[in-house]
Amino acid sequence: MSHFLPIELKHASRLLNHGPTVLITSYDPENGHRNVMAAAWSMPVEFEPPRVAIVVDKSAWTRELIEKTGSFGICIPTVSMVNLTYAVGSVSGRDEDKFNRFSIIAHQGPSIGLPVIESGCAAWMECRLLTESGAQEKYDTFFGEVVSAAADQRVFINGHWNLNENNADLHTLHHLGGGNFLTDGRQIKTQFV
């Protein structure tokens, strides 16, 4: 049973506000090639329409797929995916399908058809590539407009993260380098709401 529900796109930027490590997915329907890679550099850049930025190196096969198809997915892994997150970020998918190699179950996204991962992830987004900025060539930064998104209702409710000790196994990852990660800590709410 999936705990994922579609979210209002006006809340999609909040999925990345806290700086989690992400899994970037790509797919070329022409030949069936798909790929997944880990990335520590992602961020929201606009609320409405929801836009995000990711950094993908010129040598990455994911980059070739994104540039060819004009789309990418972002999945937000949880604590249970720490080993897999590190693994998919450490090998190239150029020679083999990492989804098959690591037994990753992916569903087809509803808008673009990108591979989206729910099992072991807290949320996912499908994005259309925006190419007019020039940042892609100069800084390896890709901008995308979120066209569909869903999140696990056990940790993302009514457009807000709800991370607590009761759902610690669903907390997101934050990469420190060298195979070291942190998870989200204690959530604190301000009195001025």
UniProtKB/TrEMBL annotation:
It comes from the Bacteria. Its cofactor is FMN. Pfam families: Flavin_Reduct (PF01613). GO terms for molecular function: FMN binding; oxidoreductase activity, acting on the CH-NH group of donors, NAD or NADP as acceptor. The keyword Flavoprotein applies. Residues 14-158 form the Flavin reductase like domain. InterPro entries: Flavin_Rdtase-like_dom, Flavoredoxin, Split_barrel_FMN-bd. The keyword Transcription regulation does not apply. Keywords: Flavoprotein. Belongs to the flavoredoxin family. This is Flavin reductase family protein.
